[in-house]
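lol forgot to send this yesterday, sorry. C-alpha coordinates for the thing we talked abt
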Protein backbone atom coordinates (compact mmCIF):
# COMPACT_ATOMS: atom_id res chain seq x y z
CA UNK A 1 0.00 0.00 0.00
CA UNK A 2 1.36 3.42 -0.88
CA UNK A 3 0.84 6.85 0.58
CA UNK A 4 0.54 9.93 -1.55
CA UNK A 5 3.71 11.99 -2.09
CA UNK A 6 4.49 15.27 -0.42
CA UNK A 7 2.40 15.12 2.73
CA UNK A 8 1.26 18.56 3.85
CA UNK A 9 3.71 20.35 6.11
CA UNK A 10 2.93 21.18 9.72
CA UNK A 11 1.33 24.63 9.79
CA UNK A 12 1.23 26.89 12.84
CA UNK A 13 -1.52 29.46 12.45
CA UNK A 14 -1.00 32.49 14.64
CA UNK A 15 -3.40 35.33 15.25
CA UNK A 16 -2.36 38.52 13.41
CA UNK A 17 0.18 40.49 15.41
CA UNK A 18 0.02 44.22 15.72
CA UNK A 19 3.08 45.81 14.18
CA UNK A 20 3.68 48.01 17.23
CA UNK A 21 2.69 45.42 19.82
CA UNK A 22 4.39 42.23 18.73
CA UNK A 23 3.83 39.10 20.80
CA UNK A 24 6.57 37.49 22.83
CA UNK A 25 8.65 34.88 21.00
CA UNK A 26 6.88 31.61 20.33
CA UNK A 27 8.16 28.19 19.36
CA UNK A 28 9.70 28.02 15.90
CA UNK A 29 7.28 26.38 13.44
CA UNK A 30 8.05 22.99 12.00
CA UNK A 31 9.73 23.20 8.63
CA UNK A 32 8.30 21.47 5.57
CA UNK A 33 9.88 18.04 5.68
CA UNK A 34 9.90 15.15 3.29
CA UNK A 35 6.73 13.28 2.54
CA UNK A 36 5.63 10.27 4.51
CA UNK A 37 7.15 6.98 3.37
CA UNK A 38 5.26 5.50 0.44
CA UNK A 39 5.69 1.92 1.62
CA UNK A 40 4.04 0.64 4.78
CA UNK A 41 5.07 -3.02 4.37
CA UNK A 42 7.50 -4.52 6.20
CA UNK A 43 26.24 2.17 7.06
CA UNK A 44 27.92 -0.63 5.49
CA UNK A 45 30.63 0.22 2.95
CA UNK A 46 29.90 -1.15 -0.50
CA UNK A 47 26.23 -1.86 0.31
CA UNK A 48 24.71 1.39 -0.81
CA UNK A 49 24.47 2.69 2.76
CA UNK A 50 26.21 5.96 3.66
CA UNK A 51 29.12 5.29 6.00
CA UNK A 52 28.83 8.74 7.57
CA UNK A 53 25.60 9.97 9.16
CA UNK A 54 23.69 12.55 7.15
CA UNK A 55 23.05 16.04 8.38
CA UNK A 56 20.27 16.29 10.92
CA UNK A 57 17.88 17.31 8.18
CA UNK A 58 18.18 18.16 4.53
CA UNK A 59 15.66 20.88 5.34
CA UNK A 60 17.75 22.24 8.21
CA UNK A 61 18.00 26.01 8.39
CA UNK A 62 21.37 27.76 8.46
CA UNK A 63 22.49 28.75 11.91
CA UNK A 64 22.33 32.43 12.79
CA UNK A 65 25.83 33.78 12.26
CA UNK A 66 27.75 35.29 15.15
CA UNK A 67 28.00 38.70 13.49
CA UNK A 68 30.32 40.10 16.18
CA UNK A 69 33.19 38.07 14.69
CA UNK A 70 32.19 38.30 11.05
CA UNK A 71 32.39 40.92 8.33
CA UNK A 72 29.09 39.57 6.99
CA UNK A 73 26.04 41.40 8.36
CA UNK A 74 23.62 39.33 10.44
CA UNK A 75 20.55 37.80 8.83
CA UNK A 76 18.02 39.72 10.91
CA UNK A 77 15.02 38.45 8.95
CA UNK A 78 15.83 34.80 9.43
CA UNK A 79 17.01 35.33 12.99
CA UNK A 80 13.64 36.87 13.85
CA UNK A 81 11.86 34.00 12.11
CA UNK A 82 13.77 31.43 14.16
CA UNK A 83 12.78 33.24 17.34
CA UNK A 84 9.12 33.30 16.36
CA UNK A 85 9.07 37.08 15.78
CA UNK A 86 7.24 36.82 12.49
CA UNK A 87 6.19 40.46 12.11
CA UNK A 88 9.82 41.48 12.44
CA UNK A 89 10.89 38.71 10.04
CA UNK A 90 8.36 39.95 7.47
CA UNK A 91 9.51 43.54 7.85
CA UNK A 92 13.22 42.69 7.62
CA UNK A 93 12.74 40.41 4.58
CA UNK A 94 10.75 43.15 2.84
CA UNK A 95 13.49 45.67 3.71
CA UNK A 96 16.12 43.35 2.20
CA UNK A 97 14.18 43.17 -1.05
CA UNK A 98 14.05 46.96 -1.20
CA UNK A 99 17.85 46.91 -1.07
CA UNK A 100 18.29 43.88 -3.33
CA UNK A 101 15.26 43.00 -5.51
CA UNK A 102 16.93 39.65 -6.41
CA UNK A 103 17.30 38.39 -2.83
CA UNK A 104 15.90 34.88 -3.34
CA UNK A 105 16.31 33.84 0.31
CA UNK A 106 14.18 36.78 1.44
CA UNK A 107 11.53 35.84 -1.12
CA UNK A 108 11.48 32.25 0.14
CA UNK A 109 11.11 33.44 3.72
CA UNK A 110 8.17 35.62 2.76
CA UNK A 111 6.64 32.67 0.92
CA UNK A 112 6.80 30.56 4.08
CA UNK A 113 5.34 33.37 6.19
CA UNK A 114 2.34 33.82 3.87
CA UNK A 115 1.87 30.09 3.29
CA UNK A 116 1.75 29.28 7.01
CA UNK A 117 -0.02 32.46 8.14
CA UNK A 118 2.77 33.51 10.50
CA UNK A 119 1.93 37.00 11.75
CA UNK A 120 -0.26 37.56 8.69
CA UNK A 121 -3.45 36.14 7.27
CA UNK A 122 -2.65 32.91 5.37
CA UNK A 123 -2.42 33.67 1.67
CA UNK A 124 -1.61 30.67 -0.51
CA UNK A 125 -1.62 32.71 -3.72
CA UNK A 126 0.87 35.24 -2.30
CA UNK A 127 3.06 32.40 -1.04
CA UNK A 128 3.06 30.81 -4.49
CA UNK A 129 4.10 34.12 -6.07
CA UNK A 130 7.01 34.56 -3.66
CA UNK A 131 8.16 30.95 -4.12
CA UNK A 132 7.90 31.36 -7.90
CA UNK A 133 10.12 34.44 -7.87
CA UNK A 134 12.68 32.77 -5.58
CA UNK A 135 12.72 29.52 -7.57
CA UNK A 136 13.28 31.47 -10.77
CA UNK A 137 16.39 32.89 -9.08
CA UNK A 138 17.65 29.41 -8.19
CA UNK A 139 16.53 28.93 -4.57
CA UNK A 140 16.11 25.17 -4.07
CA UNK A 141 13.93 25.48 -0.97
CA UNK A 142 11.54 27.66 -2.94
CA UNK A 143 11.57 25.19 -5.83
CA UNK A 144 10.65 22.34 -3.47
CA UNK A 145 7.92 24.41 -1.79
CA UNK A 146 6.53 25.37 -5.21
CA UNK A 147 6.48 21.71 -6.27
CA UNK A 148 4.34 20.92 -3.23
CA UNK A 149 1.98 23.74 -4.12
CA UNK A 150 1.51 22.41 -7.65
CA UNK A 151 0.95 18.88 -6.35
CA UNK A 152 -1.59 19.98 -3.76
CA UNK A 153 -3.25 22.77 -5.73
CA UNK A 154 -2.78 25.26 -2.87
CA UNK A 155 -2.93 28.80 -4.22
CA UNK A 156 -2.61 27.59 -7.81
CA UNK A 157 -4.24 24.84 -9.93
CA UNK A 158 -2.75 21.34 -9.59
CA UNK A 159 -0.15 20.72 -12.25
CA UNK A 160 1.92 17.52 -12.15
CA UNK A 161 4.16 18.71 -14.99
CA UNK A 162 5.09 21.86 -13.09
CA UNK A 163 5.47 19.89 -9.88
CA UNK A 164 7.97 17.56 -11.53
CA UNK A 165 9.80 20.50 -13.09
CA UNK A 166 10.44 22.14 -9.71
CA UNK A 167 11.23 18.87 -7.96
CA UNK A 168 13.85 18.24 -10.62
CA UNK A 169 15.24 21.74 -10.13
CA UNK A 170 15.66 21.14 -6.40
CA UNK A 171 16.92 17.58 -6.93
CA UNK A 172 19.65 18.82 -9.26
CA UNK A 173 21.23 20.52 -6.22
CA UNK A 174 21.15 17.30 -4.14
CA UNK A 175 17.94 18.16 -2.26
CA UNK A 176 17.07 14.87 -0.50
CA UNK A 177 13.29 15.30 -0.13
CA UNK A 178 12.99 16.35 -3.78
CA UNK A 179 14.89 13.24 -4.90
CA UNK A 180 12.71 11.08 -2.65
CA UNK A 181 9.47 12.53 -4.02
CA UNK A 182 10.62 12.08 -7.60
CA UNK A 183 11.11 8.42 -6.67
CA UNK A 184 7.57 8.34 -5.31
CA UNK A 185 6.30 9.74 -8.59
CA UNK A 186 8.06 6.94 -10.50
CA UNK A 187 6.41 4.33 -8.27
CA UNK A 188 2.98 5.93 -8.60
CA UNK A 189 3.20 6.52 -12.36
CA UNK A 190 0.84 4.71 -14.70
CA UNK A 191 3.86 2.75 -15.92
CA UNK A 192 5.94 2.16 -12.82
CA UNK A 193 9.71 2.41 -13.11
CA UNK A 194 11.13 0.75 -10.00
CA UNK A 195 14.68 0.84 -11.33
CA UNK A 196 14.57 4.60 -11.68
CA UNK A 197 12.82 4.89 -8.32
CA UNK A 198 15.58 2.85 -6.67
CA UNK A 199 18.22 5.19 -8.09
CA UNK A 200 16.31 8.24 -6.85
CA UNK A 201 15.77 6.74 -3.39
CA UNK A 202 19.48 5.87 -3.20
CA UNK A 203 20.47 9.43 -4.11
CA UNK A 204 17.94 10.79 -1.62
CA UNK A 205 19.47 8.58 1.08
CA UNK A 206 22.97 9.73 0.13
CA UNK A 207 21.74 13.29 0.69
CA UNK A 208 20.41 12.52 4.16
CA UNK A 209 16.77 11.68 3.44
CA UNK A 210 15.73 8.74 5.63
CA UNK A 211 12.38 8.27 3.86
CA UNK A 212 14.46 7.57 0.76
CA UNK A 213 16.50 5.04 2.73
CA UNK A 214 13.39 3.31 4.07
CA UNK A 215 11.87 3.05 0.60
CA UNK A 216 15.12 1.77 -0.90
CA UNK A 217 15.24 -0.95 1.78
CA UNK A 218 11.74 -2.02 0.75
CA UNK A 219 12.78 -2.30 -2.89
CA UNK A 220 15.76 -4.49 -1.94
CA UNK A 221 13.54 -6.65 0.26
CA UNK A 222 10.98 -7.17 -2.50
CA UNK A 223 13.40 -7.24 -5.45
CA UNK A 224 11.72 -4.31 -7.22
CA UNK A 225 14.03 -2.45 -9.61
CA UNK A 226 17.03 -4.07 -7.91
CA UNK A 227 18.18 -7.61 -7.24
CA UNK A 228 16.48 -8.97 -4.13
CA UNK A 229 18.91 -8.74 -1.21
CA UNK A 230 17.61 -9.21 2.34
CA UNK A 231 21.02 -8.48 3.87
CA UNK A 232 21.27 -5.14 2.13
CA UNK A 233 17.63 -4.37 2.94
CA UNK A 234 18.27 -5.02 6.63
CA UNK A 235 21.43 -2.87 6.62
CA UNK A 236 19.57 0.07 5.07
CA UNK A 237 16.63 -0.40 7.44
CA UNK A 238 19.07 -0.22 10.37
CA UNK A 239 20.56 2.95 8.88
CA UNK A 240 17.10 4.58 8.83
CA UNK A 241 16.01 3.10 12.17
CA UNK A 242 19.11 4.42 13.91
CA UNK A 243 18.11 7.87 12.66
CA UNK A 244 14.69 7.51 14.32
CA UNK A 245 12.53 6.69 11.30
CA UNK A 246 9.55 5.06 13.03
CA UNK A 247 8.50 2.73 10.21
CA UNK A 248 12.12 1.61 9.78
CA UNK A 249 12.39 0.96 13.53
CA UNK A 250 9.38 -1.34 13.32
CA UNK A 251 10.52 -3.06 10.13
CA UNK A 252 14.07 -3.56 11.38
CA UNK A 253 12.67 -4.97 14.64
CA UNK A 254 10.62 -7.45 12.60
CA UNK A 255 13.74 -8.38 10.60
CA UNK A 256 15.66 -8.96 13.84
CA UNK A 257 12.81 -10.99 15.30
CA UNK A 258 12.58 -13.19 12.20
CA UNK A 259 16.29 -13.24 11.34
CA UNK A 260 15.57 -11.82 7.87
CA UNK A 261 18.84 -10.57 6.39
CA UNK A 262 20.33 -10.19 9.85
CA UNK A 263 21.13 -12.50 12.76
CA UNK A 264 18.01 -13.32 14.78
CA UNK A 265 17.99 -11.28 18.00
CA UNK A 266 14.69 -11.00 19.89
CA UNK A 267 16.14 -8.78 22.61
CA UNK A 268 17.46 -6.27 20.07
CA UNK A 269 14.13 -6.49 18.24
CA UNK A 270 12.35 -5.60 21.47
CA UNK A 271 14.53 -2.53 21.93
CA UNK A 272 13.63 -1.22 18.47
CA UNK A 273 9.95 -2.07 19.03
CA UNK A 274 9.96 -0.21 22.34
CA UNK A 275 11.69 2.83 20.86
CA UNK A 276 9.04 3.02 18.13
CA UNK A 277 6.27 2.33 20.63
CA UNK A 278 7.20 5.36 22.69
CA UNK A 279 6.43 7.42 19.62
CA UNK A 280 3.01 5.83 19.18
CA UNK A 281 3.70 3.18 16.53
CA UNK A 282 0.78 0.78 17.19
CA UNK A 283 2.43 -2.35 15.74
CA UNK A 284 5.46 -1.77 17.95
CA UNK A 285 3.26 -1.34 20.99
CA UNK A 286 2.32 -5.01 20.76
CA UNK A 287 5.95 -6.09 20.29
CA UNK A 288 7.37 -9.20 21.93
CA UNK A 289 10.89 -10.34 22.76
CA UNK A 290 11.40 -8.93 26.25
CA UNK A 291 11.21 -10.70 29.56
CA UNK A 292 7.56 -11.20 30.43
CA UNK A 293 6.14 -8.34 32.46
CA UNK A 294 2.34 -8.46 32.58
CA UNK A 295 1.95 -4.84 33.67
CA UNK A 296 4.28 -3.48 30.98
CA UNK A 297 2.79 -5.77 28.32
CA UNK A 298 -0.75 -4.72 29.15
CA UNK A 299 0.23 -1.07 29.18
CA UNK A 300 1.49 -1.33 25.60
CA UNK A 301 -1.49 -3.48 24.62
CA UNK A 302 -3.99 -0.88 25.85
CA UNK A 303 -2.09 1.92 24.09
CA UNK A 304 -1.95 -0.10 20.86
CA UNK A 305 -5.63 -0.99 21.15
CA UNK A 306 -6.47 2.72 21.44
CA UNK A 307 -4.73 3.10 18.06
CA UNK A 308 -6.86 0.36 16.52
CA UNK A 309 -4.42 -2.57 16.85
CA UNK A 310 -5.49 -5.56 18.95
CA UNK A 311 -3.48 -8.62 19.95
CA UNK A 312 -5.76 -11.59 20.72
CA UNK A 313 -3.16 -13.27 22.94
CA UNK A 314 -2.76 -10.15 25.10
CA UNK A 315 -6.50 -9.46 25.01
CA UNK A 316 -7.09 -12.91 26.49
CA UNK A 317 -4.64 -12.22 29.32
CA UNK A 318 -6.18 -8.87 30.27
CA UNK A 319 -9.05 -10.27 32.41
CA UNK A 320 -6.58 -12.43 34.33
CA UNK A 321 -4.77 -9.48 35.89
CA UNK A 322 -5.10 -9.07 39.63
CA UNK A 323 -6.68 -5.93 41.06
CA UNK A 324 -3.24 -4.65 41.99
CA UNK A 325 -1.91 -5.32 38.49
CA UNK A 326 -4.87 -3.53 36.93
CA UNK A 327 -4.17 -0.47 39.08
CA UNK A 328 -0.51 -0.55 38.04
CA UNK A 329 -1.46 -0.83 34.36
CA UNK A 330 -3.81 2.15 34.65
CA UNK A 331 -1.08 4.20 36.29
CA UNK A 332 1.47 3.17 33.63
CA UNK A 333 -0.92 4.15 30.83
CA UNK A 334 -1.61 7.46 32.56
CA UNK A 335 2.13 8.21 32.86
CA UNK A 336 2.61 7.38 29.16
CA UNK A 337 -0.26 9.65 28.12
CA UNK A 338 1.12 12.53 30.21
CA UNK A 339 4.79 12.08 29.29
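and heres what i got for the seq, position by position
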Amino acid sequence: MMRRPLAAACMILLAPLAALAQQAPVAKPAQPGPAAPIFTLPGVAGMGVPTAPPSASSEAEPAIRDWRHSKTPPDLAFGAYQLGLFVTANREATRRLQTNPNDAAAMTLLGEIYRDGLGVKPDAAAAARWFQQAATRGDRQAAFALARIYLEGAGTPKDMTQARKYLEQAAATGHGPALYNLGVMEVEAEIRDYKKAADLFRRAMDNGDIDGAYSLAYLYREGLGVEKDLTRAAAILKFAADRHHIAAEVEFAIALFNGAGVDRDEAAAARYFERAAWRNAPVAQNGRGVKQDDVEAMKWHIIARSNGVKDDWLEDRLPRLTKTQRALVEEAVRRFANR
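Confidence is low (pLDDT under 50) at residues 1-72, 281-292. anyway ping me if u want another try
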